[in-house]
């Protein structure tokens, strides 16, 4: 099956669920590539009419808000032992240095750290659980969480979808230009590689007029 036909047959509901679940789990505190999944799904929506960008953006916002809220409740119940456990399970993301940096951000900015953290990969994972551990009032957390989710998920979907539509139209109109540029790039790369190999050849090899060394005579007893 051609890749275009396969993309046209991808069920829209599976794309919506994938985006909502991955972003929700990332917001809950599990290190997952939520932003990459959202951008990829939005580009897919820009090229496939059966995927609705409004539903996609709504699922992304819902996943962000619900995931963050669950992370907040888990952090409030688990406290500091939870951060210690996460540090052992995910030392790359929940190391003592990362936790300390996130705590300083929360202590300095308060609920704004939750809002701004939505746009920063590290804080996006920390925001929910750490806000719960630090006992931030839930109403403050909820306001920042909802606003951050709408601006980040909704804004990302809108911008990427618009860019994807423009790029798709441009590629359809100038597909021949892309083919010419690809051919020129390939031809140029081949010529450069040939020139470099030709230049490096004499330097890497032995001198042409060098005579081979005579083997030493083998003595009896050796």
TrEMBL record:
This protein's record includes keyword RNA-binding: no
Region (Disordered): 201-222
Transmembrane segments: 12-33, 54-75, 109-134, 141-162, 174-193
Domain of life: Bacteria
Annotated Low complexity bias: 201-210
Domain VTT: 32-161
UniProt family annotation: Belongs to the DedA family.
Protein's recorded name: Integral membrane protein
Taxonomic source organism: Streptomyces malaysiensis
């Amino acid at each position: 099956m051609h890749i275009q036909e396969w993309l046209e047959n991808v069920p829209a509901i599976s794309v919506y669920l994938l985006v909502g679940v991955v972003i929700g789990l990332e917001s809950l505190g599990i290190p997952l590539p939520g932003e990459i999944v959202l951008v990829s799904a939005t580009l897919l929506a820009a090229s496939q009419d059966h995927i609705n960008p409004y539903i996609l953006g709504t699922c992304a916002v819902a996943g962000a808000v619900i995931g963050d809220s669950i992370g907040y409740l888990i952090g409030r119940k688990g406290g500091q032992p939870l951060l210690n456990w996460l540090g052992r399970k995910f030392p790359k993301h929940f190391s003592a240095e990362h936790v300390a940096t996130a705590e300083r951000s929360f202590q300095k900015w308060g609920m704004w750290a939750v809002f701004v953290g939505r746009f920063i990969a590290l804080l996006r994972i920390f925001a929910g659980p750490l806000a719960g551990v630090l006992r931030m009032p839930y109403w403050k957390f909820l306001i920042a969480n909802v606003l951050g989710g709408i601006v980040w998920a909704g804004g990302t979907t809108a911008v990427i979808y618009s860019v994807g539509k423009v790029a798709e139209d441009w590629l359809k109109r100038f597909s021949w230009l892309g083919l010419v540029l690809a051919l020129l790039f390939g031809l140029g790369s081949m010529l450069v590689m040939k020139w470099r190999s030709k230049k490096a050849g004499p330097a890497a090899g032995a001198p042409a007029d060098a005579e081979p060394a005579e083997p030493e005579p083998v003595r009896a007893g050796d």
